Description:
The structure holds two protein chains of two kinds.
Chain A: H1 3-13, H2 24-44, E1 51-54, H3 57-75, E2 81-85, H4 90-102, E3 106-110, H5 120-129, E4 134-138, H6 152-161, E5 166-169, H7 181-184, E6 188-192, E7 203-207, H8 233-271, E8 276-277, E9 290-294, H9 300-309, H10 329-333, H11 338-341, E10 344-348, H12 355-379
Parallel strand pairs in A: 2-3, 2-4, 4-5, 5-6
Antiparallel strand pairs in A: 1-7, 6-7, 8-9, 9-10
Helix pairs in contact in A: 1-8, 2-8, 3-4, 5-6, 8-12, 9-12
Chain B: E1 2-6, H1 11-22, E2 26-33, H2 51-64, E3 68-72, H3 74-90, H4 97-116, E4 121-123, E5 129-132, E6 139-142, H5 152-155, H6 160-163, E7 166-167, H7 175-184, H8 206-214, E8 219-222, E9 228-232, E10 259-264, E11 269-273, E12 279-290, E13 299-304, E14 312-319, E15 322-332, E16 339-344, E17 347-355
Parallel strand pairs in B: 1-2, 1-4, 2-3, 4-7, 8-11
Antiparallel strand pairs in B: 5-6, 8-9, 10-11, 12-15, 12-17, 13-14, 13-16, 14-15, 16-17
Amino acid sequence: MFPEAIAAMTEELGRTGNPSSLHRSGRRAKRVVEESREKIAAALGAEPSEVIFTGGGTESDNLAVKGLFWERRKADSRRRRILISSVEHHAVLDAAEWLGRHSGADVCFLPVDANGRILLDEVEQALERDPDSVALVSVMSANNEVGTVQPVGEVAAVARRHGIPLHTDAVQAVGQLPIDFADCQADCLSLSGHKLAGPPGSGVLILRRGTPLTAVSHGGGQEMGLRSGTVSTAAACALGVAIELTTERRARTVERVTALRDELIDGVRRAVPDAILRGDPNPAGRLPGNAHFTFPGCEGDALLYLLEARGIECSTGSACQAGLPRPSHVLLAMGVNQTVARGALRFSLGHRTTSEEIRATVEALGPCVERARLAGLAGLPTGAR
Amino acid sequence: MRVLAALSGGVDSAVAAARAVDAGHDVVAVHLALSRRTSVQRCGSSGCCTPEDARDAGRTADLLGIPFYVWDLSERFQRDVIDDFLSGYAAGVTPNPCIRCNEHVKFSALLERALALGFDAVCTGHYARTATDPQTGLSTLHRAADQAKDQSYVLAVLDPERLSQVLFPLGDTTKSQVRREATERGLLVAEKPDSYDICFIEDGDTRAWLAARLGHRPGPVLDVHGEQIGQHDGAYAFTIGQRRGLRLGNPAADGSRRYVLAVDLPRNTVTVGPESHLDRRTLTGTAPSWCAPVPSPGARIGAQIRAHGSESPGTVEVSQGHVTVHLDRPVRGAAPGQTLVLYHGTQVLGASTLVLPGTDRG
């Protein structure tokens, strides 16, 4: 978290007042929340009335996918299809599949190319096959594992032609890519505080004015009745501060992080010549802070241990339940086979990453990969060696 | 030493890891994800490897201040333990899945991977002791001090090299001491119930589990004269020595209890009869593995054929690829596929797979 966001949050935690209350301290808290709402709207090219505070990216995704589906289905019972990219985050993927099991939805997975980018032709075909049966389309702005940036504008244009709402999970993208909600034609957009150096456990759903949505949780009717529950003034305040700082510093941070990322990619390729960069090889087509590789013959979790023993923390894919390693659905959707997908390592760079850290990582990687290969072989059945 | 401690999420492996840390080793913890199951919490004594167990293992590592990882060995477990168990039953033999797991997963896949990553040994919460033979310098395996918890039987397939790469810190302790120690150390799993049953059969109903996978294959239940006296749903589900679940309405003519005497898979028959027919004085095993010098002909040994069974004294003959044991007193219910483990005093000599007398059928 930015120190400024921590300061704003802790200061606010020391004050009293429920932003839904009508008394003086309530009104004060309300003012803080509304000021923050305005900051967030300004940073993203949205209007304050389009900003809904939630408890995080996952909650925003669930609200968007379920809320849009139920609303559209209610308006027209033929609208049962949900079109989502096959590389969505589980917050979208599992919400859609849940609707498939419990709400009669028919989930249609849109394929991606070998770089993880959605195929526009396929989106068009899927829509045009029977546009009246589609409830919503959901395509992430940029992939959380391999960093590939999706052509959300183009997808939105296609969806809009057929009058179908588009949700985009922008949790990874906000802060790293310029986002202008007014421009992008999406109908709703999810973001998460912790990806913006803001508070974990805070998020926002930007919902285009006039887009009908059914609420998922019910209660006090806060956030225009779309997200009941007391808004955390402290979290909202800190999120506003973080998003403002992120926007202000983005150009400089992105330039710095991109250079470090490219240094890392070059270094990894030198240290491990057969490592394969996953996601878009064109630096402009991927998130500035993302480098993702598969290392043939290695198990990602063995690499993780070996690198951590040398003080380098990275991840095998996305942080998941019980830390249980599974081949990533993103890599599989990109056509990577199961065994190769197990040797995945994702490096995330942020505003605090230094050139020394990149050098240390590259230096450690060669011997770690060598060792992990021995261990990888040890894990295989005798016949497969 | 650099030690990789396997944490199941239970009390034994937790105390074992704590003792390894106390001994001054550089310890890293790993939890093995073995079965791909759906339930989140563990119920009763059955099962392991739930997210709850993974969490308990992780919290134990937190308390011990050691790094913690989850390794997915479920493919190996599926193939070498679950599939092996299923194909064993389908072929009419009775494999011990815990032995397979120790042989192929814990002290093979896990150990090899640990060694490749630079560890010197794997530490587990098994109740057994290792020592070094002063003459040969080789590692040896012995029964645990706690007779009731002794697990040397399921470890008897390890060779001296493997035994030199494992740590069993609980070998000289009783279970009640381990629980007391866990409480004293503030380990949250101190009161967690023991697991007994086959871990991948969640509800403990082995027959239903087999039936769901091997199907309904009705056939006759025969008496010792070959007369049909009942029907079964699949001969694969029966084990020699089994008494329950025969579903024979009428009692035997002499009123005695009836036991499964033979299972013939090709003919899909189950033969039942009196307990006395189960007595075996001679046991034959195939493919022996040794963790001590091969016993000389006629050597006095103790033989054990079940994990929780007792030891029967006798003599042993070892010939090419076979072990024959002549027992002083007969044992009951020896079934092909079971592991025959030989002891000398507290020391484990080796293990072998039982075959039907006079045949090689495993």
